[in-house]
Amino acid sequence: MSFRDVFDRIRKRMRDLMEEFEAEIEEELSQTYSGIIQPLYTVTEYPDRYEIVLDLPYGDLNALSVKISESSLKIECDLVKEVKFEKWSIHRNVSFKRYKVELKIPSDADISGAAITRDPSKHLIKVVLPKKK
Amino acid sequence: MLGRPRRTLMFNELQIHEYYDAYASPTPKYMILCLPDVGLVSSIACRHIVMEKKLGLVGEIDSPTLLPPISVIHDSSPISPVQLYMPEDRGFLMVLSEIPLPPASVFSFVDAVSNYADEVGVEYLLAVTGLAVPNRLELEKPQVFVASSKEEVYASFKEGDIEALREGFIVGPYALLLKEGRRKGFSTVIFLVESFLDIPDPEAAAFGIAALSRFAGIQVDTKKLLEEAELIKLRTRDLMRQTRKAMMDMQKQMERQMPLMYM
Hints:
Chain A has about 130 residues and is an alpha+beta fold. Chain A is built from one helix and eight strands; from the N terminus they run αββββββββ. Chain A folds into two domains: about 35 residues; about 100 residues, Immunoglobulin-like, CATH 2.60.40. Chain B has one domain: Rossmann fold (3-Layer(aba) Sandwich).
């Protein structure tokens, strides 16, 4: 392989990374400007299951929507009240009113055994996905 | 708006700009270090202390090589994202960073800050941070652990509900603070509160403040912190994301492993 090929491969990899980064930022910004925010979540893998904890501060857990398919977990939830940060220049005109996130489900997860628990006092939900036997 | 610093000191490649007289009396006994880490426990706790105790901004830390070129604007005043705070009674100094430290800068940063603490005569380097546990959601009351560079500090916690951290890995700036503290003869005390890894945890921060208050006699009411927990979690969402990336770069997941030389 010539030096030229190596540099071409590096350039392509950098271009791909930049495109990936830009797409991520664009998606985040377009959602944010429409008042939609992606919640924080943490995934823990156990030998027999996956546990996904999602943080939904001010989330109205009575209006929680959870859709599970073979490949993804979609969660949407309204905030109990709109939240605005007026002193934060880039978002001064934005009211945050809805959470939305789509997570990829590992291929060895058994979605038929999915269980959801809610902690309304802390505005957290936990989705447990057992592993296929 | 802050004007020009009274004095600028250089440690490694870190500039410490002072807007106060570092040698006036009394000498601050404690320096509290606050860097974004697990569950943002440290950041949430220290931000609350700054607000609740109405600490004054007395300095800022910058670096042309160790920190990214960032200026944070507060009340229209441009300052470094790493700031120094102190109460009117000069009881303690606080170093608070609003950004996660780049992993490559951690060693030089901790070394410089501990040298500065020595320069101004601080006796104890303190910090509150999170200790990620997978069952955090199920815990009603997170356990507080203490890790220190000095044996006698552990003795003061023999009775009470704060446990000594006996075995395990600590990764990140506080790990270096402990090691460097022991090697240089500083008294470093780190309170580690069971928390979420990458979800902001104001409740754990409140437990951390209580431990800090008990050790250093800094009385801080955490009622408002708990009342505003939801808003704090929403506000700190982006910082938590950045911190998660920095933690992964620092091999933070090692904290869940058992050390080879476990006794």
